[in-house]
Each structure stands twice: as structure tokens, then as C-alpha cells.
Amino acid sequence: MTAAPAAALEARGLAKRFGATEALRGLSFAVAPGELYGLVGPDGAGKTTALRALAGLLALDAGEARVLGKDPRRGGAEVREALGLMPQQYSLYRDLTVAENLRFFSRLYVLPRRTFEERAARLLAITRLDRFTGRRADALSGGMYKKLALACALLHEPRVLLLDEPTNGVDPVSRRELWALLHQFVEGGMTVLVSTPYMDEAERCSRVGLVHAGRLLLEGAPRALLDGLEEEAYEVAGGDREAVEAALAARPEVRAASPAGSRLRIDVAPGGAGPVQAALAPLGAGLRRVTPAFEDLFLSRLRREGAA
Ligand SMILES: Nc1ncnc2c1ncn2[C@@H]1O[C@H](COP(=O)(O)OP(=O)(O)OP(=O)(O)O)[C@@H](O)[C@H]1O
Known about the structure:
single chain; Rossmann fold; four-stranded antiparallel beta sheet
């Protein structure tokens, strides 16, 4: 008997170059069975390339990908059956209905009819697509389209699910519904790796890896990561924007600044708010302390790495 692998998914020093672009530069992380792990990072960070490597769709230049302890390019049927993938551009048949798309994918997975019917009914119910089975895929909203893609990717009941930016281009209500679905699957014992460019989604994962330029910047449980943030976050309101930005740029305590609607959000070195406030007061601007978010954490770590 072989022992079960400790990690459901493992990326060990993944490296991949496309021409002059180094998409992955030694990316490593592991996802435990039953975990909801978020790979969070901006566009171009290497998230899609990492997911493709784990799905066995990519020849790596260096490093190893493992799914349930197996090389996904050599694991054959065992890996194929265990793994579900929802790529960013999931190719549903746009001129087929919701029900026809599900049936098409069930044939790909060679599911017996009874099994298909039971699973499709359950997936349609939990995605709340059961009222739209006759609607063509090209007439679905962005959120409904993603949910149908998710249902198709789940038809063969994978133990491990890879989702590439499932909430990209989806309205806030559908985003929340998609995350609720992922939590349900994880409660049912599935391992889920999800990539997202939205920093605010990091808090919905049991563990996150912040990715930038093909490497992991930071990894951990969301709350613990935020608690470990050294900088204090503030919002700056009032004053002439240009003058305020110039004053902030001159303050060494200000470690990062980014627009937040009509305001500015800044990360300040511990205890550094006093001098910043003093510099802003003559300009008619002030500071308000806010709860740090993942964006603050990301910017702080980028700056420390000398990448921002
Ligand atoms: N097939 C390819 N050919 C050339 N360059 C590629 C290819 N795939 C990815 N890249 C490049 O590798 C880098 C990482 O891309 P990747 O798609 O993995 O990032 P990402 O984090 O998923 O972001 P996005 O949301 O923009 O896809 C980018 O600079 C991208 O342009």
C-alpha cells in the first residue's frame, strides 16, 4: 500500500519562459487535501501558467508539478479522473443550451446516463441554473456562463479542482455566489486551487499565496498575514490632489500610495502618521486610519522586495 501524499497539489520550483518573458521563476507552493487555496496576483503574475502546469498542459523548463503525488503529464487516467479544470476562457458551446452543454461534457467524460442525470440535476440546483436549462449559452449573463462552466468542470466529480480567475468579469452578486459554491465543495471534501487578480478575494480562502512576476511573495492564512502587516493603512481626504501627492512623495514614512476612488490610500511606517499628518494639515488634507487590506500587504511586500 502506498501512503497518501501529504499535498493534493504541489508546485516545486516551477520555471517557464515564453521567449523573452519569464512567466514562472521558481514558483513553489503546496495545497493540502480539503484546502481552498488562493493564488492571488495581478495580471501577468504567472497564475494561468502555474495552473496549466499543474493540469499537465504545459512542459516546464524546470521544477515539478504534482497532483495527488503524481506528475500530471504522466499520471494518465488516475490524474485525469481526479482533476477538474476551469480555464479562464472555458469553451462552452455557445449555440447549445445549458442542458445540451452538460450532456456534451458528460459524453466527454463517458458518464453513464443515470449518473449524468443525477449529477446534472444536483449541479443545476446548486448553481441555480435549473430554471434556465433551455437557454443557449450565448444568452447567459457572465455569472451564469461561469456557473455553467463550473458545472461542466464538476460533472466527473473531481477530487481536486483548479479554477483560473472564475470571478473575472462577473458582477458582485454572482461573485459572492461563486465563492459560496466553492466553500460548499470544500466542505464536501474537495481540494480547490483558485486564481484571482482581486486582492479582496484573498480573504475568502483558507490559505493564500501572493504571486508576483512568477514567484511567491508571501503565503499564509489571510488573517495571520494581515495581522503581520507592519505598515498602518490610512485614507487621505481633502486638499488639492497634486499638492497632496507631492507632499506624500516627500515623506519617507509613506511607503505606498494608491488611488481609492476620489481619495488616496497610503501605507505608513509604524508610528509615522504624525509627521505625515503635519505635512498635510497646511494643505487642508487629513488622515483617517483604515483596516489594512490585502492590497496594502501586497504593496508593502513588493516594496520590501525592491520591485515597486
Ligand atoms: N503562451 C504564451 N506565449 C507568450 N507569453 C505568454 C504565454 N502565456 C503566458 N505568457 C506571458 O507570461 C506571463 C504570465 O502570464 P500568465 O497568463 O500566467 O499570468 P496571469 O497571472 O494568469 O495573468 P492574466 O490574468 O493576465 O492571464 C505574462 O507576461 C504573459 O504575457
